[in-house]
Amino acid sequence: MSSAPNGTMTMNEYTFPTERLQSQLRDPSRTPLVLVACGSFSPITFLHLRMFEMAADYARFNTNFEVVGAYISAVGDAYKKSGLVKAEHRINMCSLAVEQSSWISVDPWEALHEDYLETAKVLDHFEHEINTVRGPFNTPEGPKKAKIALLAGADLIQTMSAPGVWAPKDIDYILSNFGAFIIERAGTDIDEALSTLQQWKDNIHVVQQLVQNDISSTKIRLFRKRDMSIRYLVPEPVVKYIEEQGLYDEDGASSTHEAQNSKKAGESAGASSQNV
């Protein structure tokens, strides 16, 4: 079986992954951009991976950003969501899913925490690691800090518009300081979702999904419980890992919580955004 060493890491052993972060801009006139997808990833699917590619294409053709890297950040076990397998498994599956990618990394920092971390804190972590620890990108025009942006499905914006789901201060902090690249999804009225977020419209980029894809982690878990094939819905190494570990089977093996999600207002993080 393929192994993914991040899954057995402890916080004392943690180092921020930078090996897939682009070292310099190909076009110095652009602003470096790092995409961060937060969510449960239980399990990661081809749609999660495809979102990065769609956002990168959008940024290249429609903005002055240049994508210099991307990260998957899975929630920790304290999220308390039904169907959420242990963080070790989710880190392993995400690591296996991006083995062949040259620019998408898995950062286990969030998942290694025992306490739940709000999305704002997670994005602050990336801001610190990339722009303070690593430092700005050197260009002929002078040093440029990377723009850190949240990558999510359209249902994230929908939850931000719903009263009581997010703390208003968290919405303002995330959309003012980081912004978001939002992938359109079937069943979500993006115009309605954006109607209450107009003050941040310049920092929200809506990416059209030209090839419709409604794969979700929820459906993958349902297929597993029904003993149905999940091949070609998730990466093959992830299929093998799920089967070998007996995840998402009828008995709910390795699930951290069977109770319904009990997140507090303002703590919907990326999980709702990924339909997980």
Automatic annotation (TrEMBL):
Question: Which keywords has UniProt assigned to this entry?
Answer: ATP-binding, Mitochondrion, NAD, Nucleotide-binding, Nucleotidyltransferase, Pyridine nucleotide biosynthesis, Transferase
Q: Name one Pfam family in it.
A: CTP_transf_like
Which pathway does this chain act in? Cofactor biosynthesis; NAD(+) biosynthesis; NAD(+) from nicotinamide D-ribonucleotide: step 1/1; Cofactor biosynthesis; NAD(+) biosynthesis; deamido-NAD(+) from nicotinate D-ribonucleotide: step 1/1
Q: What reactions does this protein catalyze? A: nicotinate beta-D-ribonucleotide + ATP + H(+) = deamido-NAD(+) + diphosphate; beta-nicotinamide D-ribonucleotide + ATP + H(+) = diphosphate + NAD(+)
Cofactor(s) listed in the protein's UniProt record: Mg(2+)
The record describes its quaternary structure and partners as: Homotetramer.
Hey, which family's this protein in?
Answer: Belongs to the eukaryotic NMN adenylyltransferase family.
Stated name of the protein: Nicotinamide-nucleotide adenylyltransferase
Q: Which organism is it from?
A: Aureobasidium namibiae CBS 147.97
Q: What does the record give as the organism's lineage?
A: Eukaryota, Fungi, Dikarya, Ascomycota, Pezizomycotina
